[in-house]
Amino acid sequence: MPKPLSAVIWAAVSLSGAGAIAWLALSRGETVSAAWLLVAAICTYAIAYRFYSKFLAARVFALEADRATPAVRLNDGRDFVPTNRWIVFGHHFAAIAGPGPLVGPTLAAQFGFLPGALWIIVGVALGGAVQDFVILAASTRRNGKSLGQMAKDEIGPVAGFTALVAVLGIMVVLISVLALVVVNALKSSPWGTVTIALTIPIAMLMGVYLRWIRPGRVLEASAIGIVLLLLSLYAGRWVAESPTLAPVFTLSGTTLALLIMGYGFAASVLPVWLLLAPRDYLSAFVKIGVVIALALGIIIVLPPLQMPAITRFVDGSGPVFAGKVFPFAFITIACGAISGFHALVASGTTPKLIERETDARIVGYGAMLMESLVAIMALIAACVLTPGVYFAINAPAGVIGTTAASAAQAVAGWGFAVTPAELESLAARVGEASLLSRTGGAPSLAVGMAHIFSSALGGTGGSAMALWYHFAIMFEALFILTTLDAGTRVGRFMLQDLGRHAWEPFGRVSWYPAVVLSSAVFVAMWGYFLYQGVTDPLGGINSLWPLFGISNQLLAAVALCVGTTVIIKMGRQRYAAVTLLPLAWLVTVTLTAGWMKIFSSDPKLGFLAHASMIAERLAAGALPAGARTIAEAQRMMFNDRLDAAVAGFFMLSMFVILVESAREWIAVVQGRKPVRSSEVPFEARPAAVGR
Amino acid sequence: MSASHALSRGARVVACVIRAVIGVPDYERYVAHLRLHHPDRVPLGRSEFTRQQMEARYSRPGSRCC
Fold first, then answer.
1. Are A239 and A246 in contact (CB under 8 A)?
2. CA-to-CA distance for A582 and A589, rounded, in angstroms?
3. How far, in Å, CA of A4 to CA of A58, rounded?
4. Whose C-alpha in A323, A370, A508, A642 is 20 to 30 A from the C-alpha of A44?
5. Are A530 and A176 in contact (CB under 8 A)?
6. pLDDT band per the 50, 70, 90 thresholds, residue A688
7. pLDDT score of A689 more than 60
8. A159-168, A400-409, A534-543, A648-657 — which is least confidently predicted?
9. Which of A79, A490, A690 sits opposite B61 (nearest CB)?
């Protein structure tokens, strides 16, 4: 493209983006079309990719297209395989995109759409995509080393060990909070429960098909699986409409929690081909399909955002989760803006597939921009609901009561109009007994998606809305359970690896007693938090989601520390700000949020204050709200203190990593340690690469 | 090349891309690699290869994200 033309185009993109952001930020009182949010996001992504990622690739890392990558040098036809960059992009995107970017923005919508949107758009350009790119580039230059290994080699053994333990802690919190989202979506919903339960035999059928009937025919098996999946949607409706079967599948939260724990345990001990792998394939298809469908739906409908730009709840009095917009918007939305977990993917399979070093730009930076767009779409889907409906679905029963009348009254008290009849008719239209207090984000996102899909295909009447709602619930639950089962298995391996230092036989990965024991221990770890969340009168999300946010941002801090160390040791310390700046912001929000969650004197926010409040009630001879016995109240106190300890552990881990990294940086900058990069020395790429 | 040939070839390419994106172990590529670069080695059988690749994929953090 001729230079002047290119300049004109990029100027137009910049102006459109800036104009859209200004329009969003200045709109007050009237509804804004989702189109503005999409334009603001896409223009910012385009500019960030075109200019900032180019700067990162060319100047900071000086990636070279003719340098042999590990996939080329170590090509073994199985793990290290040079792969076309668009395939690596798709593979990487499918691996990083999980339920996180769907749930976080939905919850953060309680502040209005603007805080979440700005954090997603700015956070990804300067933080999340930078992290993914830097770790991918660093790992590619080190033969595909893992994040934990790089933390150990680049920073030191203490940092390496802290990173390892932190990853295990994150897995526990991540799995428990995601399981809680599923429980809250399926509670008292026979339709949803049956549909999701059927996905398990469908996956096993695919597994058997792939193993014995038509080995290796993954696409065939997946096509069968998808058809059965759609049929299970109708089977769920049939059960829900049956007066005899419906009560059997109308399950309480605690029953569902136990069933999910059983599922996680089974996924960890059963052979991978039977359950995990086929589910993963199915989930990948559904994931990519729904993301594309949602994008099309939003573009066709261009729905108005009913949620105001900023709500009164930025002051910290929100019912969905406690805490002010700073720092809590920034830990509630982790995935979509910056997600530390991606660093594990970017230092896992992906660097072993990169064909040319320069591909790290589109794969690392580009795929994260895509995930950010998914988060923006989730935010749009949550904000097409009227605020009254959104808060009735997302506020816990302890705040809005259990009837449509009490909910409508509570929501009206916050200044959002909704009538009991509206709430009841919406629940009936989506085929549920009630939508009140379905906390966790999944149901409100599903209502929003059902609204978009049915409007895109003409009309929200009839049974279309109910089918789309349960389709969306199935999609979210399938997504989450795929993270949960794979995560439990990985957690089991990590536990075995740590445990073998204490007792050698515990670490034997193919000795059945050790497999069963370690799986049971790991399931018990996340199961405890899940059970705690399910029985929490405030809905559980209020305490667990912030812990997940803090842990994910801790991992991002580890990744950015590793990235900074790598950049400094490459002798490019003048560019260290590209990772130091997002690191400083993350440390600020995470430590502030962690401190507030532990020590805030507001019992709604602070874990310890909540525990003391219960203690005072008990001392006065009364029971706190939500507790029926003294033992229950005491367990609530214990859980508060446990949550405080977990938050404290994550904060301490972050502190250790920071101090260790800073010592290393100062030593290199002051010349006490040599400026020596640990990357594999340059080797030219062969002219033609055989396969 | 006839139209139907082109079509079936296109379908094969698409199928191949989808398999790679969702992370299916590619046995044919593995065998082709060994034939070309290590003709002296005996390749694993399909089911053993698939088992090993799947075990590796689902035993480390980073194959699946939140």
1. yes
2. 11
3. 22
4. A323
5. yes
6. low
7. no
8. A534-543
9. A490
Q: Is the pLDDT of residue B64 over 90?
A: no
Rounded CA-CA distance A129/A127 in Å is 6
| Cβ contact B18–A75 (<8 Å) | no
How many C-beta atoms lie closer than 10 Å to residue A676's C-beta? Answer: 10
Q: Which residue of A has its CA nearest to B15?
A: A219
Cα separation, A309 vs A112, whole angstroms: 5
Put simply, the answer to whether B62 touches A344 (Cβ < 8 Å) is: yes
Nearest to A691 among B24, B25, B32 (CB): B32
Strand partners, A418: none
pLDDT class for A185, splitting at 50, 70, 90? very high
Residues with Cβ within 8 Å of residue A620, at least 6 apart in sequence: none
C-alpha A28/C-alpha A308 separation (Å) is 8
CA angle A135, A553, A481 (to 5 degrees): 90
Task: Give tens-digit pLDDT for A235-265.
Answer: 999 999 999 999 999 999 999 999 999 999 9
| Percentage with pLDDT > 90 across chain A | 87
Q: Is A83 on the interface with B (CB under 8 A)?
A: yes
Residues counted in chain A: 691
One-letter amino acid identity for A263? Answer: Y
Q: Which residues of B touch A335 (CB under 8 A)?
A: 65-66
Query: Which secondary structure element, helix H or strand E, spans residue A541, and what is its range?
Result: helix A541-569
Do B66 and A339 count as a contact with CB atoms less than 8 A apart? yes
Q: Which pLDDT band holds residue B1 (cuts at 50, 70, 90)?
A: low
Residue A525, chain B, CB below 8 Å: the answer is no
Phi, psi of A67 (to 5 degrees): -90, 135
A691 to chain B nearest CA, in Å? Answer: 6
Interface test with B, best of A270, A272, A552 (most B CBs within 10 A): A272
Does A94 contact chain B (CB < 8 Å)?
A: yes
One-letter identity of residue A656:
V
Distance, in Å, from the CA atom of A203 to the CA atom of A284, rounded to the nearest integer, reads 13
pLDDT at residue A391 greater than cutoff 70: yes
Confidence label for A459 from pLDDT (cuts 50, 70 and 90): low
Count CB pairs under 8 A between chains A and B. Answer: 137
Selected for mutation to probe chain A from B17, B22, B36 (highest A CB count within 10 Å) is: B22
Please give, rounded to a whole number of angstroms, the shortest distance from the CA of A290 to a CA of chain B.
15
Chain B CB contacts of A285 below 8 Å: 22
**What H or E segment, with its residue span, contains residue A33?**
strand A32-33
Chain B residues close to A347, C-beta within 8 Å: 62
**Over residues A366-389, mean pLDDT:** 96
Q: Say how far apart CA A368 and CA A395 lie, in whole Å.
A: 31
Q: How far is B34 from chain A (nearest CA, A)?
A: 7
Instruction: Report the amino acid identity of residue A265.
Output: F
Which residue, chain included where needed, has tokens 């690739």?
A: A57
Name the nearest CA neighbour of A441 among A372, A395, A376, A499: A395
Q: Tell me if A333 sits within 8 A of A375, measured CB to CB.
A: yes
A261-300 pLDDT, tens digit per residue, is: 999 999 999 999 999 999 999 999 998 889 999 999 999 9
**Residues 327 through 346 of chain A touching chain B, CB cutoff 8 Å:** 335, 339, 341-342, 344-345
Q: Is the pLDDT of residue A600 over 50?
A: yes
For A56-81, write each residue's pLDDT tens digit: 999 999 999 999 999 999 999 989 99
* CB-based contact, A266 to chain B, within 8 Å: no
Other C-beta atoms closer than 10 Å to the C-beta of A76 total 14
Nearest CB partner across the interface for A552, out of B24, B34, B66: B66
**Predicted TM-score (pTM) of this structure:** 0.95
Q: List alpha helices for A209-323, DSSP H.
A: 218-241, 245-248, 253-269, 276-301
